[in-house]
Amino acid sequence: MTREETRRAIEDLLADYAHAIDDDRLEEWPSFFTADGTYTIIPRENQAKGQVVGIMNCTSPGMMRDRVLAYRRANIYEPHWYRHLVSALRIVDETAGVYTVWSGYAVIRTMQEGDIAVFSSGKCIDRVVFEAGKARFKERLVICDSARIDTLIVLPI
Predict the structure, then answer these.
(1) How far is it, in rounded angstroms, from Cα 144 to Cα 157?
(2) What is the pLDDT of residues 47-102, one digit of tens each?
């Protein structure tokens, strides 16, 4: 795979991931990860201090599936929708087939009654690998610019 093909495949992974969440295809969320993939949302200040406790921690796609199931069947929340804006990615490293990728994001949340606000912004640090020619997250670390989350995070960022 050429450098440009690799970059395009990683860009497609980030875009497909965001669209699946924005389009309420949450059952697809775990499929963007490897079998041992992890997903963490952490405030910037915690990450800077080396504290690993996050707002959301999923240490496997199974935990992600459980979260989606709870979202669909058990949680009570005001209906809302996300729209992701993802900045241009930067591939900062490749070691033994694992690509370290940085991107910025903003998530705009629209509530059922029509209120619109920037819900979260920050940076993603991803570890991406290729399985059968397809890019997958081995690790997705979402670093929120603010530790203040005004509502329970029920959807992945």
Answers:
(1) 10
(2) 888 887 778 899 999 999 998 998 888 777 778 889 999 998 999 999 999 999 99
How far are the Cα atoms of 39, 114, 146 from residue 135, in angstroms, in the given order? 16, 35, 29
| Domain architecture of the chain: domains with CATH | 3-144 (3.10.450.50)
Within a 13 Å sphere around the CA of 114, how many CA atoms are in the beta-carbon half? 0
Distance CA 112, CA 38 (A): 30
For residue 99, give both structure tokens.
């690509």
Q: Which two tokens stand for residue 29?
A: 């969320």
pTM of the model: 0.92
**Which residue type occupies 86?**
V
Question: Which of 140, 69, 127, 139 minimizes the C-alpha distance to 100?
Answer: 127
The structure tokens listed for 43 are: 């405030």
